[in-house]
């Protein structure tokens, strides 16, 4: 692949200008850039500093709201934050960093134009912030790559919603018992936040939607949660984890602990306990791993592939490099056990970003660095409308109070007043009107109808995606 230069990739015109390159536009990238805009306002105004943020998407996704978006409680455009609007003091580049040579202070970036020209761009920098986040961690399970569905992006969440409703349409329109059984069987692999919340919200949504089908009842659907360990939602504590299993089983959800997915070839989910299910839906939420860009750098990584960082969020043993969030192994100075690291979750990511922004400003001014110290306060999880669990500050809540706490906590954490107001308005309207149960699967193949009309071969189903 050819390497080229571009206007934004060349060194700043002012020799004294310090370029800060932020890799990743998630929680850490966004909040670090916001903090730097505030702390370096004078330097930015005098062209003594420049902030460049490279992100694969022009928006940040507030992932805790993905389950509610999948259930239709929140519009997808309201859980994403446009980077260019919020980061008006930064240069936002939509692209992907494919390699980093910190010894030369350069990063290789593939932009949207790379697909057309075949050329990547070399970006020089003075300070590097690595916050690329994580990607889904998959296993070499037969059939998973062909039939599995992820749940980490807003596109996957909306696609899964469309898919579930479409399966109900398929079941309603066929007399073939095998097709009907496969359409109404939903297998979720992974008992963490993503899997449990997605399952809880979608089952709740599908049960509500079934009242509008003349031949699909809630008891016709099979919802199966597969977890390899002996508990689910470990973040909310053992007691709340057991309560969650009881609550899900009360809703006729089949929770299988100490169980693994061994195959899903030919749309048949084979579990390690010997069970076999014909299914058209296998949702994979069994963990994440650091972004591949870390392995394509010359920076130190730990045994799990995460960036080795100090409590000040600097890369251990490397000058002018910083890290935080899912991709960084940050020592937890509040933990009683030595060697413990902060959990890779949004609670730490947002707080680390503020300290990270402050420390970069301190380093540029020759000031002492701050140590990141935050004691984990607990977790909240939604299990569907008016249902949830929480373990916060040692207090355990369940049912409606936990669900309300979940909503209020995340409403306070989603960036910008604009998004807070829009989400709150949607929740208010949802309380006054009935749920929307429309599948817009055709959005995934917007040209299919026109291709058929023009006499070409359609690349997808114009009426939906199955």
From TrEMBL:
Keywords: FAD, Flavoprotein, NAD, Oxidoreductase. InterPro entries: FAD/NAD-bd_sf (IPR036188), FAD/NAD-binding_dom (IPR023753), NDH-2 (IPR045024). Its EC number is 1.6.5.-. One of its GO terms (molecular function) is oxidoreductase activity. Belongs to the NADH dehydrogenase family. It comes from the Bacteria. It holds the Pfam family Pyr_redox_2. This is NAD(P)/FAD-dependent oxidoreductase. Residues 19-352 form the FAD/NAD(P)-binding domain. PANTHER family: NADH DEHYDROGENASE (PTHR43706), NADH DEHYDROGENASE-LIKE PROTEIN RV1812C (PTHR43706:SF45).
